[in-house]
Design goal:
It is a single chain. With 292 residues, this protein is mostly helical. The protein has two domains: 17-83; 142-291, 3-Layer(aba) Sandwich (Rossmann fold). It is built from seven helices and three strands; from the N terminus they run ααβααβααβα. Strands 1-2-3 form a three-stranded parallel β-sheet, sandwiched between helices. Helix 3 (158-168) packs across helix 4. It starts with 10 loop residues before the first helix and ends with a helix.
Amino acid sequence: MGQQQVQQPGTSREQKQKRKGFSRRQRLIATVIVALIVALAIATAQVLSGAKIIPDIWATISNAIVGTFGMIFAFFALIPLLFASDEPQQVSATATQVPTPLPAVASPQPIIIQLQQPISPQPLPPPIPQPPVPEKPVSGNITGSFPPTDPKTIQQRRKLVEEVYSELTKPDMNCIVLTGIGGIGKSTAAALVYKYAEEQREGGKGSFTAEALWITVEETTATFVYLAETISAVLGKTVADFGKLPPQNQAAALFNVLNTIDHPCLIVINQFENHLDSQTGQATDPGLGELA
């Protein structure tokens, strides 16, 4: 059990209590004296005013001043008396408790777990680098821009490509036109057909045994003479003074070039609409009109 110590109030605390009580009695006496003085001053002013020694107005003013100061003094003197407590202050006892020591408990034996060294996995062999897929076929038979055909970003549309290629290889077919609104993907579809034809040719399949030809018609080269001379040059069948021929003869000369090639090949003309009038859809070049 702990010991409890109680601190008793000393003599100085009793003296302070007595001094506080004495101060309250003094304030009470002072308040009574001030009240008597105020009453005496008021009575004196009334007597002097009644005897006509001082004017009535001065008596009224003096009474108001004396009464006001008396009330203020009495208010501040009575506040400590109203709120002071006559009960003796309680002296709290402070206790100091000495903790009881706990009984000694035997500490448990530690559990030791031997961790084995983890077996590091065998490193994987580095991946075999794959050759990058070119954005366009590496060929000298490409004139102008070629659309991107990377399978990582472009849908290959295999079914459509095979259907177009099948139609092109028929004996009675010599031309297929891909139509549609701008931006629908006509150039991309034509590029996929071009690549598929080259894959078949390189694999020894299909009807096209010569390398395919790709020509993009730009606005600055949208003339029939440029188109015919480019095809003739790639196929090795140049025509002398082709541009000087009349339109009907230019068309006949180009037909002659296409009919006399040694090996059939696929010719893709991209952006062919640059040869046509945007309002009427008719050929803007007389030679191309004769070809149609």
